[in-house]
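Amino Acid Chain and Its Fold in Token Form
===========================================
What this section holds: a protein sequence and its matching fold, both as plain text.
Structure line: whole-number tokens from a learned vocabulary of local backbone shapes, matched to residues.
Purpose: to set a sequence beside its fold so the mapping can be learned.
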Amino acid sequence: MNFLTNQWNYIKKLASVMALIFIITTGGWIVYLYDISKEPQPIDKELIVEGENALNIGHYNEAQRIFEDELKANPKNQPAEWGLKIALLRQSISKPEFKETIDELYQQDPNDAHLNLFLGEYFAAHEQPDKALSYYEQAITQNPKLAEAHNALALFYAKLGDYETAKVESLEAIDTSPSAVPRYRNNLGNIYFKQYHFEEAIKEYGKNKEYPLSMLESSRVYWHLEYLSQATTNQNQAIEWLNNQAIMAKPENQEAWYFEVSPRKSVQLVTSEEKKIYAYYCLSISLFLQGDKLAAENELKKLSDLNQARPTNIAALLALTLDTLAQSNSHFADQVIAYKQLYL
């Protein structure tokens, strides 16, 4: 009997000790987990690199999102804070406060390649080519792999008519970008087009997949080559992509489209509606040039579904495009005049 009593007392003592150990251990973990929750999360270096890559190829909206996500977890992350400032700054380049803001940031870090790139773009837009070139070159010296700087320099030289140097910089932009950037290929195609190297232009445009702008640009080349059925095919493909939400959600398809209408003026299409209007007009032109007036009008009737009137800048862009076509293909002259009178 004494043996059973002793055993029972031993079991109770052992259970008490184990319970005490459990309480101490559990309490320790609770305190530890609480302390951990109060500490800042470890900096996600991969996220910072991802944000920098987005900046390097001009995906400023995407860079903004990445840096904001990191700052939510680590509000004191200085690289993310600076990256966010850079992304927001570029998106305000056309606003009055841009120059004052960039001057303040430049005082903090004059060796930041992005700031020098933005200053180059600013002075290029304000017809100060010497200053623009100086800042572009500084940006590339500071970061030779800054693809956006090479692309900006390519556009700069193309505007000056130095197409050979422009092509070199375009290829640098393509080679230094961490991923395929359709805009760079498209710009290289535009340079070939300006040189009347039509086959090379079509080849570059064709390397861009699910990128409606390049498909429309290639159709413009086919007009000059008088391959109107191929132009129609490409324009239908562009419209199909424009109406595909998944394709248009890609960062490259969120960017504005720029068209140079004169050395000092460009047309910018920002919204998906504007891009669709331009595409439907291009298809309408192809059908009209083939002599199918009814089909051309039917394409324009589809614009009513967009609930948006045709912007005047698109009309000016189309008129210039048609005039250029008539100058290089004189037998299209009468059709160009007729189309402009009827629809523009």
User: Anything to note?
Assistant: The beta strands are 257-262, 265-269. The first strand starts at residue 257 and ends at 262. Residues 110 and 235 are 45 Å apart (CA to CA).
